[in-house]
Each structure stands twice: as structure tokens, then as C-alpha cells.
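Practice record 12: protein with nicotinamide-adenine-dinucleotide.
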Amino acid sequence: MNRPVVVLGATGSIGTQTLEVANLLEIPVVALVSRRPSEALQALAHRYPDAEVVVAGGSIDERESMTRALGKVVKHGPDAILDAAATAGRVVVNGIVGAAGLRATVAGLEAGNRVALANKESLVAGGPVVTAALAAHNGELIPVDSEHSALYQCLLGEPSDSVARLILTASGGPFRGRPRDSLADVTPEQALQHPTWAMGRRITVDSATMFNKGLEIIETHHLFGVGYERIDVVIHPQSILHSAVEFVDGAWKGHLGYPDMRIPIQYALTAPGRMPGPGEPFSPVGLDLTFEAPDREAFPALDIAFAAGEAGGSAPAVMNAADEMAVEAFLQSRLGFLGISDVVQRTIAEVDWRELETVEDVIQVDAEARSVAAGLIAGVC
Ligand code: NAD
Ligand code: MG
């Protein structure tokens, strides 16, 4: 506890909530990492004068002007990010969006650090690589994703042969209940209206298509070593039950609370201990909790993800890369909403399956899938 924290994706939804939790717990923040120089990053850097500031890219002009404004060097590039994650004795909160977060997750684990993982894409794209790094070094991987934090806590102290099923809950997103043919013309603005969580743009669109739950199925498999036939999804629009475990005797253990990412973020910092939390006390009184089966025809992402997970190897990395490209194209109105799952499915079919053993293998297949997906997207414009 109270090891200094590195915040990857510091300007994002997870990053800013991590900083809130770190302040509350009086945990020092030693590094702020973001995609590029921005006013938001500069404001954070002023608030944490002792933290190093690292960006993945941005122009030389942007970096120099930020260096002048801060009176200290703004480090940049992948190696600078890896140095921040791989300095021993730190907790690395990975709130980067996309497969770009994989290297830092592996570097943090290899350095023996605790990685508080929001970046589910690390496990989706590089599951075998991340689990090997976890097994070979004395790092720790604690999930931040609310469903996985819930499952992690429900599984504590339970022998693995007592577990029958892991049940992931999903809000169903803004288009829950709508038939597939009514989704052809939905706009980015409509897809960005998440009913229960305020999050970054990619994960919000992924919640509307249900690819987010698809990614989470694969994340669950790698985190808990459970076969896909024992992972289920149930729609729960209120996002109060964050997920549940069914045991062989029929008992269920679930994790409840208001939708507030600061709680799983804090748990990933304090686990296995707990500290007083940031949110209002939870009360179930007056809550109307409902559950329904997902509509797999309107939202094919679930079946695509189960199939990619079962195929293993490169298939989940290809699925994720194609989805990243398709979501970006949808947000720029270059692709329709239903085109997202089409592009993902066709990219998986087109990229040759292979085993993934190293981070470089993942990066290569990720690049290949992006190029195939870009071609497919250009073809439908
Ligand atoms: P976001 O878009 O709000 O923020 C993303 C952050 O990553 C930004 O700070 C951005 O500058 C940084 N970033 C992007 N590319 C980068 C790169 N190549 N190198 C370094 N930094 C980079 O996204 P978010 O909603 O905070 O989501 C972050 C991750 O957490 C995603 O994997 C998402 O699936 C996961 N997650 C988010 C939530 C949530 O409530 N927001 C919940 C569960 C899981
Ligand atoms: Mg989640």
C-alpha cells in the first residue's frame, strides 16, 4: 500500500478518477502519461509538480511549448512510457485505451510491479503474453474493469473447482431492446449516450455494439483461467450488480454498488486491504433491479467474441484491432453502426490465424488487422 502510482492515460476517464482516488488515499503520483501534449495534461502536470510527464507522441512544437510552460522536460515515445511503468516499486494504473496499452502492462509485470488494469485490450490482444509475464515474474495483475473487480472479489478464498460459472453483467447500452434493422442509421451522438456510465468514446461505442462485453468475455477468460463455456452474459440495465459467480452447489455470490469506477480503481490500489471509499453509501432500498437475456441477433458482437476467444491465438487481437478501427470510422461517420460488427467479422476471416508468443507477435498481427480493416472500411464508403 501507498507505493507511488504511475497513471497511464492520465487525462482520460480512468486516469482522472485514479488521480481523485490517489489524492483521497494520499498516495504519491510519480508519473502522468498521455497520448499527446494537451491543456488537460498541462493542468494535471501543474497539480503534480513532482510527477514526471510523458507523452506517446504529439509534435515537437507541442512538446517544446509544454516543456517551456512547465519548466521541465516532457518525455516522449514508447521507451519513456515503458521506463515509467518498469521502474520497480510502483503501482501502474493502466488507463490507456486500445492495444497500445499492452507493452506497458507487460513491462510493469516484468518489473515486479502491481498493474491495476483498466486497459482490457492488454488481455484481449495479448492474453498469452500477459499471463506468461505474470507467471514468470513477481508482479501482480489486479483488474479495474468493474465486472472483473467484482469477480476477483467474489472469487477470493474460493477453490477453483467450486466455481461453476462466471456471470458478467452488461447494461445493454443505449440501444437495448431495439431490433437489428432499426440500428442501421443510429448516429455517433446517439451511440455516445451511455445510460449508466460516463466513459471514453471508444468504450462507450463498444457498449452500444456490445463489443465491450465481448472484450470482457476474453478478459475474464485470461484473468481467471475459466473456459468460455463457463462464462455467461446477462443484461442488467441498472448496472448495480457488477457481476456474479455461480458455485457448484448452486449458490451465487454477486458484487453490488452504484456505478462508480472510483470504487474498483481504489480496490486495485488497496487490495487485499480496503480503505474508506470515495462515493456515497450504497442502499438497495427502492432500487428496481432487472435482468434479461442479451439479444444476440441485434448485437452479434457477443457471438463474434465467443468465437474469437475459442479460436484463441491471434483471433482476439484481430477482433480488437478491427473494432478499434471500425469504431473510429463510425465516430467520423465513415462507417454505419451495423458496419462495425461486419468489419470485425470480415477482418477475422481475412487475417491468417497464428499463435502469439511475444509482444512483437501481437504488435505485428495488430498492424496487419488494422490494415485489412482499413481496406474494408474504405470499400464500404
Ligand atoms: P479515455 O479515452 O477517456 O482515455 C484514454 C487515455 O489514454 C487518455 O489519457 C489518452 O491520452 C491515453 N492514450 C491513448 N492512446 C495512448 C497511447 N498510445 N499512449 C499513451 N496514452 C494513450 O478512455 P477511458 O474510458 O479512460 O478508458 C481507458 C481504458 O480503460 C480502456 O481500455 C477502457 O476499456 C478501460 N475501461 C474504462 C472504463 C471507464 O469507466 N472509462 C471502465 C472500464 C474499463
Ligand atoms: Mg466493464
